[in-house]
Structure formats: structure tokens, C-alpha cells
Amino acid sequence: MRDAFDALFAPASVALVGASDDASRIGGRPLRYLREAGFKGRVLPVNPKRETVQGLPAYASIAALPEVPDTAILALPAAATLQAVEECAARGVRSAVIFSAGFAETGAEGEALQARLTATARAAGMRLLGPNCLGVFNPALGYYGTFSVILDREMIHPGPVGIVSQSGAYGAHIAHLARARGLGISQWITTGNEADIDVAEALNHMVRQPDTKVVMAYAEGVRDRDLFIEALETARQMHKPIVFMKTGRSAVGAAAAASHTAALAGSDRVFDAVLRQYGVHRAATTAEQIDVAYAAASGRFPAGDRVGIFTMSGGFGIQLADDLEAAGLDVAPMPEDAQKELLDLLPYASPRNPVDATAQAVSDLNVLKACVRTMMERGGYDAFTAILGTGPGSKTYADPLREALMQALAGHEGSIRALTMSAPVEAQRRYEADGFLVYEDGSALAHSLGALARFRDAFDRPASAPAPMEPLPLPQGPLSEAGAKALLKQAGIQFPAEHLAPDAEAAVQAAGALGYPVVVKICSPDIAHKTEIGGVAVNLKDAAAVRQATAEILARARAKAPGARIEGVLVAPMVPGGVEVIVGVTRDPVLGPVVMAGLGGIFVEVLKDVTFRAAPFDVPEAHRMLREIRGYALLEGVRGAEPADIDALARLLSDLSRFAAAHRDGVVGIDLNPVRVLPKGQGVIALDALIELEAP
């Protein structure tokens, strides 16, 4: 049996329901495109009002078709779509594409109609794409199951770029831009309202296609978290870059996304961090998405971060150096002896890096060849860049310039080579045929090379392999701090030795056993924020202070939270020193359980210096997570401070992620705040804990 995606992308036969003789209409365009592209499969137009459509025999209904098609394209109004789906299901059609809008994105009535489509298809084992989508195409087979106008003048050439988009218009736009950039497309799919097939399933399919080397994706939200993460990890392991455009960064954008395809955007910061976790490049603009996909389409990545710059203009060279460093790359200087050799050749050159050969290289291409050859042989660069300006478009200079560059780079064919130029498209294509990446803007070149280096780093690391945690029995109802800590201790989280005391005298005894100074805190499953009721006293240095603080805390708790269940007070030792951090778990509505980490105090309250990871993850991933914190240097030790036990903090994050994943359906959130990261080798201690459980 052919699977759904095989039927969608490579059908042996396709029914076009609502086929039109007018090739400019939604029901006419797919038929026109299939014929013009030379599609070899059987095309079966369905239109009860016509005997022929665009020269092909037409059929009155799906039931009247001479065979069961692999897929059906439904170019019908929303009101007629349910009946067509029912007829396809009755006939045994394996998949259907629904163009029409007017379903879940319009409100409750449309949502109910869409649900009926889905239920009908699922009962018959039929897969649906859409509604409210632009369909699919597969240029290698000449199969165009779409009504997109981008095919009006020219079809898409086959190539290495796969496109997956929730938005049909955006998917069509980037396909058009990719074509203009000289990029061919392997397969293209738009998922629309995702009544059945969603962007996660489509992405999972796309990254596994042999002809796909890079994927451009667009999403406003994700419905299937696990399948989405599986797709990202599969792409990483297969060394296939994903360049993602995720909208909904702002509250307005998230609301617009919800009304567009009825997709929940979730937390943008969480989504951003999860993309980084799996080595996906998130593009800020459409131009950036095209630029990075273009660079990655060759499937080649730099071995390291060292980049050499050749220029004939000092100003442009400095600008590119700034951009490359901003992209995280190393504009390393040429070796001193190599610089001296270049100065002997050209005394007024700047041989450091950028290597500025000045305008002399324009009149004497031997100078250019000597500089470039020395850079490649002596500089140890992983990528070569050159700023060529308008030279490649010159009638008299273009060919000699290109030949000189190729001669200078001979023997270094495996290196990444990228140029900036302002030249006609045909000149750019000639350089591309010689293995160059060509950009007009130096900043776009730099950011693209930076993305290639990050892809390489992601591809080189082994898969995150956290040991699964056996689920623990979760108690009913809210937990006190003592209850939360008792549960988390079973997950390997370390807390200070502390005692639960029902009254002041018991608290004094506990403090004496622990040693002074101590902290006393109210302990109640109904008081989550203890400081708000004056429920914490710190740095208590003797029995009298403990007795008085305990009595006052219990009295305030009864007065300010009269209905709260009071277990007593927790007595714990003061934990001096170390670096204060905050750690937590939240259940994102889109991406499920995610772990948060950041520096405590002002860093989290004002600077929001936190980062996230999808649970579960291993210790190496926890280290990568921590390095994203802007204040990470404080953990390493600054101004004479001892380095903190970062290894212990990473283990805590990984353990917490395993706990969160094992209890994803029962735990809504966890706060460990503050957490003290002690000096290196001394461990990490969580001083407070709060767990929110799913209501029964």
C-alpha cells in the first residue's frame, strides 16, 4: 500500500474535483500546470457540467471515475467540500488536498465543519492536506497539485531545497525567491489549517527525502510536539539544515497566527531555544531565510571558523570583518612571515586579514593571485571570501578576474568560498558554477557563513541521550515545600538538610541540631509565595530568635491565610557563598515540558537573562544551554571569584528535565528558586522548591 506522502507527491493518478476549463481559475490552474509540466500520471477531471475539461475527458463524479485515484485535489467551495470528502472516502481514495478556506480559521461553525472532514477521512483511512492550503508540488515528476500563480510564467526546476509551510502564500513566495536565486526545489508542501497532516509530519517527511539537502520551513504554531522534535533531530542526524521562519514573536503576531490557521503559537522564547537545541537556524527575515538556504544547498560546511578576506578596498574589507566576527567567526590574522612576503610584493598593501591588495590588483592580476594563493596556503582558513564589487560585470575585466581567482584557488576545491559582487545574474551564475557562493551584501554573506558553521557544530555532536526516568507516583492536590522537595529528591535533586517543625519549641530543637545560623519558613501546600505573607525569616543566630520568628510566622500565616493547611515551619541551615541561579520547568502549550535556567536576582527580574530547553536532555546539552546565558561569565568566576560548579548545575538541569519528561501529564510547573551553585567540586543546592500538579 502506498503511504500518504507517496500518494501526495508522486501519484500515479490524480482526480481534480471541481476542474475548470478556464485555466486562470482555481479549478483550472492545477490541470494547466500538470499538462504544461508533462506530468506522466493519469489526470481525471471531475465536473458534472462538462464532457471535457481543457481537452481531457471529464467525469460527473468521483464514483464515476474509471479507477481509484491515488489522490484527489478538491477545488471546491467550503460548502461542497464535505460531500466530496465523503465521496472520496467511499471510493477508497488514499489522500485528498483541500484548497478552500472557510473552516476552523473562521470560528466555531467552520471549526465544526472541519472536524467533520477529519472524522470522515479518519474513519476511511484517508489522509487530508488542508483545508485552506495551496497544495503540493514535485518538480522532478512534473507534478503540480497547486493553484499558485508563481507557476504562471515558469515552472520550478528540481533541486536540493525542500519547502514546508503552514501558509500557502508564504510557501509560494519563498519558492519564487528560491527560483530567482537559482535554487531548484525537491518537494513543496503547504499544510494550511492542518485538519490532518500538520507541519511536523510534513517536515518529518521532507527531511528524509534523498533529493532534499536543506529545508525551508514556515510555521505559526506546532500541533504535534513529539513529531516536530523528531523531525528536527532526524534532520540534525542526517546533516540536513533546516532554516525556519517562525512568526508570532509579538502578542499581536501570535493572535494573528491563531486567527489565520487556528494554530497556537506558544512561547516564542521557548520555540527559539528549542530550535537552537536541535541546530535549526531561525531566520529573522525572509531574505535571511533565502540567503542561508542558498549557502546550505550545496551540503558543504566549513571545517572550522577561520575566515580569510581578500579585498581591493580597505573600507569594504573592514566592514566584512566586522560582520564576520558578529556572526561568531574568526577573522584570524595571516602568519607574520606570510604578511612580510606580501609586503615585499606590495609594500603599500595591508596583509593582515583582511588582505587588502588595493587597486593594484585591478591592473595586475598577478598581485591578486599571489595574495589569494598565500592566504589559502599559509593562512589556514576554513573559508575564503573576496569583495569583487562591479568587476565581475565588466566587459573587459570579468573573464580575466574569474580566471585569476580560479588559478589562485586551485588545489583548495574543498574549501568554502564566497564572494560579494554587483554584477548581472549571468555573471553570478558563472561563479556559482565554479563553486562560489555569491552575495551582493557582505552582511548577508557573513551571517550565512556563520549559519553554516553553527550547522556544522550541530551536526558534529552526538545525539542527546538522557537515561529515561521511571515515573513516580504523584500525590493528589497541591504540595508544600517539604512535599515538593521529598518528591524531587527521588529525581536526584539535592536540597540542604532541613527539618519540619510543628511549633516553636520543635523549631528550636531542629535549629540546635542543624547549627546556627538558620532559616525558618512557613510550610503549607496552600501558601505558594511565602514572602508575601511574611512567612520567611533568615539568618537566625540563636534559639531565642528562632522561637520568636517561628511564633510570628505561624501567627501571620493563620491571620493572612486563614483557610490554609499549616504543616509547620521548615528549619534549614543558611547556605552562604556560591552563585545564585533560578531553575524551573514549565509546560509550554506547544512544546510541552521545557526547562528554564538563568542567573538569579536582577538578572532574571530585570534582564530576563534565562534560556530554555525541551525536556528531556543530557548533561552536554545542559552545558550548551548554560553557555547561552548572557551572564555565564559569573559562573566561570570573575574578579577573583572561584569558578562555580557548572558540572553539578548541568547535572541538576538534566535530572530535572528527565523528571519533567517522565511526568509531563501530571506536572504543570516547577520552581527551584534560589539555587546555590557552590564553588567547583562542591556541588549545587536548591534552597526552595515549588511544584504545581495537574488538577485531578
TrEMBL record:
Domain ATP-grasp: residue ranges: 485-521
- Top-rank taxon: Bacteria
Q: Which Gene3D superfamilies does the entry mention?
A: ATP-grasp fold, A domain (3.30.1490.20), ATP-grasp fold, B domain (3.30.470.20), NAD(P)-binding Rossmann-like Domain (3.40.50.720), Succinyl-CoA synthetase domains (3.40.50.261)
User: Which PROSITE patterns did the record assign?
Assistant: ATP_GRASP
UniProt KW keywords:
ATP-binding, Nucleotide-binding, Tricarboxylic acid cycle
Gene Ontology biological-process annotations: tricarboxylic acid cycle
GO terms for MF: ATP binding; metal ion binding
Q: Which Pfam families match?
A: ATP-grasp_5, CoA_binding_2, Succ_CoA_lig
Give the signal peptide, or none: none
What family name appears in the similarity comment? In the N-terminal section; belongs to the acetate CoA ligase alpha subunit family.
Protein's UniProt name: Acyl-CoA synthetase
Identify the species of origin: Pararhodobacter aggregans
